[in-house]
Amino acid sequence: xxxxxxxxxxxxxxxxxxxxxxxxxxxxxxxxxxxxxxxxxxxxxxxxxxxxxxxxxxxxxxxxxxxxxxxxxxxxxxxxxxxxxxxxxxxxxxxxxxxxxxxxxxxxxxxxxxxxxxxxxxxxxxxxxxxxxxxxxxxxxxxxxxxxxxxxxxxxxxxxxxxxxxxxxxxxxxxxxxxxxxxxxxxxxxxxxxxxxxxxxxxxxxxxxxxxxxxxxxxxxxxxxxxxxxxxxxxxxxxxxxxxxxxxxxxxxxxxxxxxxxxxxxxxxxxxxxxxxxxxxxxxxxxxxxxxxxxxxxxxxxxxxxxxxxxxxxxxxxxxxxxxxxxxxxxxxxxxxxxxxxxxxxxxxxxxxxxxxxxxxxxxxxxxxxxxxxxxxxxxxxxxxxxxxxxxxxxxxxxxxxxxxxxxxxxxx
Length: 413
Prior knowledge:
- The chain is built from 16 helices and three strands.
- By secondary structure, the protein is mainly α.
- Helix 8 (154-211) packs parallel to helix 16, helix 11 (270-291) packs antiparallel against helix 12 and helix 15 packs antiparallel against helix 16.
């Protein structure tokens, strides 16, 4: 093979790739690659080849490849459900990960499971292995896994974690599904009106000029709108794009994001939906963490990180300080005045009865139902409104221009 050769180990499945410098039996240094589940196994493979490793470096290629491919929420739910089933069956963790590697169809998930398996075989806990992949496993997820491993109750906490992910996914999917039809109607209406004004209405302008008759005011208005869109349509599109970019850039700085999130909460109807959605996420996360035996302060710190609205996060910072100082959670939330009254009232009841975790989870379900019901009511009102808008816009343009043509023909007659 010469002084430098690549050594590849064929396994039943691809494992974490390691790059090593090693001595051969003649004392020459060689550089190569070995596919193995762990560093220990790679060393064993090399020694069987009469090679002595002197430097061990994990290859970044496999890890970067897995990060490059996005892992969907469905993949994560399937992984969690599979792990839950295997752990409940008392299957050892390394074997459970090996089985999950064999049954998953997602290449990105397979690479992730291989990385987890490699870390676990090297002696890391599953939580520590997952912590290295924050783009997949949230801090709430990692903390629940860590609590299960430390308390020896992972088989009890995984079903609750799987249920948490499933409930969150259902709520998110319900909101998305409810908005698809109105969004399609709105986009269809806007495109239809623009096409009429840009391509159809200008055809009538030449007709009116040839006839020399006076153009009715309504038709003249549409002709002017058509000319404006043709002349400045590109600038209008750029303006919309710049406004969108500016809106996104507000998230770059803490102060501007704080003002933006505060403004969103103050909006009628939309603000209430955002507040109850965030409150549901906060309640479910904190309830799951407390149910896993995680202390309240630590649970609050993790729960804050799943909240997207920075204005609410600012108030939760104060809540954490108050709780750290000995105040009750319900009283601290009430003090902010930013959260739903039902939230701090039920938490206060839960603190008195010692059932804070279960009450938080039930409160989250209540808030989720509120969001779904409100979204259903909005969509129910929005769909006919958009249909009427589309009919008035398209029909109005058509009737206005045809009426102008008919009146012109009448005058000529």
